[in-house]
Amino acid sequence: MVMVNGEQESGMVGQTITEFLKQREAPIENIVVEQNGKIVHRSEFDTTKIADNDKLELISFVGGG
Fold this sequence. Notes:
Elements: E1 2-4, E2 7-9, H1 17-23, E3 31-35, E4 38-40, E5 55-60
């Protein structure tokens, strides 16, 4: 199991951050990912894998006026 924004989810262990975000249809260019308390740099999304018991926080930026 993996915790995503405080909720348990399954089926993503072994995926890269990029694969996970694409599956969720998340806007990769406007999102910050924290994995186990550390920010994952966008340049590392393709190589950073999700492991069992990881804690992910997804933070989206929305513009407006």
